[in-house]
Amino acid sequence: MSLPLPPRPAIYEILDDRFRTGKCTNGDQQLEKLYEGCRWAEGPVYLPAWRQLIWSDIPNDRMLRWDEQTGAVSLFRSPAGHSNGNTLDLQGRLISCEQGNRRVTRTEHDGSVTVLADRFEGKRLNSPNDSTVRSDGSIWFSDPDFGITSDYEGHRAEPEIGGCNVYRVDPATGEVRIVADGFGGPNGLVFSADESRLYVSDTRAGHIRVFDVREDGTTLSDGKVFTECRPEKGRFDNIRFDDGGRLWVAALGDGVHCYDPDGTLLGRIVMPETVSNIAFGGPKNNRLFITANTSLYSLVMAVTGVPRIRR
Ligand code: MG
């Protein structure tokens, strides 16, 4: 005799058959909620050496830490400069975008914090949101004004720079340079696996732009629109690649989107809360961690994140 099972809502919505044939839907069939109790969660990053995940609870000005082996959640850092996006550099050190302190920092192995960028040409940054690391050790980050428009996710202030740009921090000199501009609100950014392209979401514009990385590895060609978000459905936040070259994108208000490299929306993960950020992790790098509104979720997937240290 089989026990009656409660109905479960489908978590995958197939919008293009490649979402199914690419085995994007063959993993967990239900979400795991790992934690709830944030005010607005963002910035998950998995630390393979410690089998832990660190993420930001921005309005509460704290960073939390989830332990994969025990499930325990504890405080990692508070105050945290209203940190938003987090990633790891090539040495596995934590890189954090601190909206409240208007800077990008690196947490050293001894626990001290080094400021990587807080100004451009003498003017304070707006409120760094997210960063990614290239194989040459350079840090690329977005600088929208989301953290200075109110006191909710930072500290209300007038912008000094007068634009929302993407910057590169040189690994040798520490020089901070604009690599892309003309954004409404630049947000998540990630390189393609071969680092020939940089993808940047623009939350206010409702699209993702893609740029070719020039041969020097330090500058970008003019960007073009890679894809638009579904009209009136959601807005893009951060982006991660799987090993099939597909882009998984946190779409505020519309779950997690999956795009073919040609820009087609293949399908999505339907979420019970508003998604902010995603990150692959776990020992096999096939566990998708999802911050959504007050909670942290995960989904063990049939696809695997790009096996690079930055994620
Ligand atoms: Mg973001």
Kindly describe this structure.
With 311 residues, the protein is an all-beta fold. 2% of the residues lie in helices and 45% in strands. The strands form 7 sheets. The protein has a 5-stranded antiparallel sheet with strand order 1-24-23-22-21. Magnesium ion binds at residues 42, 84-85, 129-130, 187-188, 237-238, 277.
In short:
By secondary structure, this protein is mainly β.
What secondary-structure arrangement, pairings included, does this model have?
Layout: E1 12-14, H1 17-21, E2 32-36, E3 41-47, E4 52-57, E5 62-67, E6 73-77, E7 83-88, E8 94-98, E9 103-107, E10 113-117, E11 119-120, E12 123-124, E13 131-133, E14 139-143, E15 165-169, E16 176-180, E17 186-191, E18 197-202, E19 207-212, E20 224-228, E21 235-241, E22 247-252, E23 256-259, E24 265-269, E25 275-281, E26 287-292, E27 295-300
Antiparallel strand pairs: 1-24, 2-27, 3-4, 4-5, 5-6, 7-8, 8-9, 9-10, 11-12, 13-14, 14-15, 15-16, 17-18, 18-19, 19-20, 21-22, 22-23, 23-24, 25-26, 26-27
Bound molecules: magnesium ion (MG).
Magnesium ion is lined by residues 42, 84-85, 129-130, 187-188, 237-238, 277.
- Span between termini: 45 Å
Q: What is the SS-derived class?
A: mainly beta
The level of helicity is under 10%
Oligomer: single chain
Apparent shape: globular
Ions and ligands = magnesium ion
Q: Which spans have pLDDT < 50 for at least 5 consecutive residues?
A: none
Strand content: 35-45%
Count of helical regions = 1
Sheet with most strands: strand arrangement: 1-24-23-22-21
| pLDDT averaged over residues | 94
Sheet of most strands: 5 strands, antiparallel
Order of helices and strands: EHEEEEEEEEEEEEEEEEEEEEEEEEEE
Number of strands: 27
Radius of gyration: 18 Å
